[in-house]
Amino acid sequence: MLTVALAKGRTVDDLLPLWQEAQLPLPADLDDTRALVFEVAWDGYSPIRYLLAKPADVPTYVSFGVADLGVVGKDVLLEQQKELYELLDLAVSKCRLCVAGLPKDFDRRPERVATKYPKLADAYFRSQGQSVEIVPLSGSIELASVIGLADRIYDLVQTGSTLKANGLVVYDTVHDISARLVANRSSYRMKQREISEVVRRLNEAMAKREAVRQ
C-alpha cells in the first residue's frame, strides 16, 4: 500500500489533471463525496490510498510516516521545515509569497505584520534589519491591514484581485510558490519501486505539458 496525502482545496484541484495525465489511478468519486480516505487499485503495483488533509497538516502526516508521499505548497514546507524529501516541483498551484499593505503605509517603517507564516515573516523582516511584531492569523489576512490591526501583511498572492478589492498593494515578492511532491525518508527507501514510478510518470506528464507550451 502506497499512501499519498493531498492538500485539500486549490492544490488538489490544480493537481488532479496532472495526476490523470500521468495515468496514476484516482478514485472515481473524489469530487463527489465528503470522505477523506480513498483506496484504489494500481495495475502491477501496490494499491494507492489517498488522504485528503488540510495543507498545513500534510507535512506532518508525511514526516510521521502516516503517508509515504504528500503534495503540498512550497509555502507550507518553507514555514514548517519538516524532515522530508522534496522530490518534484509539480508546477501547479503557482502563486507568490508577498509583503503587502495600504499604499499610504509604504514609506512607514513596519511595526506590526499579520500572517499565516510567522517564521517566514520574522525571518524576512530580520533580513531587512527591521524588528516587527508578528500577528499570527489563520485566514482573511488582508482584513488585518484594512482595519488597522497591522501595517503589513505577509501572505500568498495568486492573481492580486483580493488585494486590489481591499485597496492593498504588493510591496515585495519574497518567494515564488508551487505545489511540491514530498516523501517520507523511510518510505523513499522501503517503497522505492512505487515512488520511483510515481515520479517517472509525473515527470513525463510535465514534460509533455512543457512541449505543448513551446
Automatic annotation (TrEMBL):
It catalyses: 1-(5-phospho-beta-D-ribosyl)-ATP + diphosphate = 5-phospho-alpha-D-ribose 1-diphosphate + ATP. Keywords: Amino-acid biosynthesis, ATP-binding, Cytoplasm, Glycosyltransferase, Histidine biosynthesis, Nucleotide-binding, Transferase. It is an enzyme of class 2 (transferase). It is found in: Cytoplasm. Gene3D superfamilies: Periplasmic binding protein-like II. Catalyzes the condensation of ATP and 5-phosphoribose 1-diphosphate to form N'-(5'-phosphoribosyl)-ATP (PR-ATP). Has a crucial role in the pathway because the rate of histidine biosynthesis seems to be controlled primarily by regulation of HisG enzymatic activity. Lacks the C-terminal regulatory region which is replaced by HisZ. This is ATP phosphoribosyltransferase. It comes from Alicyclobacillus acidoterrestris (strain ATCC 49025 / DSM 3922 / CIP 106132 / NCIMB 13137 / GD3B). The gene is hisG.
